[in-house]
Amino acid sequence: MSDTLILNADGNPLSVVPLSAVTWQTAIRLAYQDKVRVVNEYEDWEVHSPSCTWKVPSVVMCTDYIKWSRQVKYNRTNILLRDLFTCQLCGAKPPASQLTMDHVVPRVHGGKTNWTNIVTACKTCNHNKGSNRKIKPKRLPTKPNYYELMSKRQRFPITIRDESWLVFLDWDSKLVEMRPPRKNV
Ligand SMILES: [Zn+2]
To answer: How crowded is residue 126: how many other Cβ atoms within 10 Å of its Cβ?
Structure first.
């Protein structure tokens, strides 16, 4: 996991899904290039080169506002998030490792692997369904937009590196896990 949270010039995280965080090396390089300014530093973490010492930034902010398309990536994590880690056939919520990606129109019938043909399914439902195209989820899947995915992401735990991130993340404190970086540099 990365050490430094990146904010856009408006003070919000550059991205929440996935969280915009980078390694301390990248953060220091971006600051050195004036692409970001440092908002917070780790109090007790410095890194050294032969000639310099830097405090490691915990939060940086882009110097210029970055406009981006906010397209959501098609991948397993985002499908699980869209479906709230719930089997779309029976409603079960087993651990994420027990959830599979099910083709609504089975591949053997020409079904594609994309947002509108893939749903989260538990192993039992996926197995029982096989290539039966008549078994369908209660709601047909759609492609979510970034904000839908972000608000769903905020219902689940997040791991952060530094308390100073909390100010910039709109997150229920019960769902925040602190895991400080190993400052062995
Ligand atoms: Zn199921």
So the answer is: 18
3-state secondary structure at position 6: strand
Cα of 1 vs centre of ligand 1, distance in Å, is 32
119 alpha carbon – ligand 1 mean position (Å): 11
Task: Give 8-59 as a DSSP string.
Answer: -TTSSBS-TTTT-EE-HHHHHHHHHTTSEEEEEEEEEEEEE-SS-EEEEEEE
d(CA 63, CA 83): 36
CA of 92 to the centre of ligand 1 (A): 5
Q: How far apart are CA 113 and CA 105, in angstroms?
A: 10
Query: What's the 178 CA to ligand 1 centre distance in angstroms?
Result: 33
Q: Is the model's pTM score more than 0.85?
A: yes
Asked whether residue 178 carries a pLDDT value surpassing 90, the answer given is yes
Residue 149's pLDDT is what?
97
Give the Å distance between the CA of 113 and the centre of ligand 1. Answer: 19
